[in-house]
Amino acid sequence: MAQVRSREREQLMPWWVFLVTGIGWLLISMLVLRYDLNTSITTVGYLLGALFLAAAVNEFLIYAVTDTWRWGHLLLGIVFVLGALWGFFQPKDAFWALASVLGLLLVLQGSMTLIGALAVKGPAWGLGLVTGLLEILLGFWASQQYYPARAALILVWVGLMALFRGIGQIVLAFAVKREA
Questions:
Q1: Which regions of 34-155 does DSSP assign to beta strands (E)?
Q2: Are 24 and 166 a contacting pair, CB within 8 Å?
Q3: What is the average pLDDT value for the chain, to the nearest integer?
Q4: Is 155 exposed, middle or buried (0-12, 13-18, 19+ CB in 10 A)?
Q5: Residue 6, domain member (yes or no)
């Protein structure tokens, strides 16, 4: 019985798929963190295009199986396809747009964290206060017009995210292999 279940799991998602995606994430991390500014910015732009393409496929699949809000999913899928094309054909512009949006989102997130910490005043409200202030400062730093500093923030963020994602995928691959 246990052998049948492990074979079913192996057929659902082979362990090596996680290993391959983990290695891919590590390669992206190396491209972003190791090479010069131009190569790293271009890599993040292409990664943004791939993310938009995956989101477009997701929206088109939802469009195919749902009965409500079909037009919304179709419209969003088309917008994501346009975003993917922009990321693939103008990767540097896509990167700088991501940097601008990230600054705004960090200021909004920091404001909400700060307000939540002040409103609740729980046992760790000081931690929320410091976190909110740091997010706001980081958001203003990411929003400033000095491009190299903004690029450094985004590149370190994307590079570390890809590194941790790659390590997590490889660990998951060996955990799935052990269970199979």
A1: none
A2: yes
A3: 85
A4: buried
A5: no
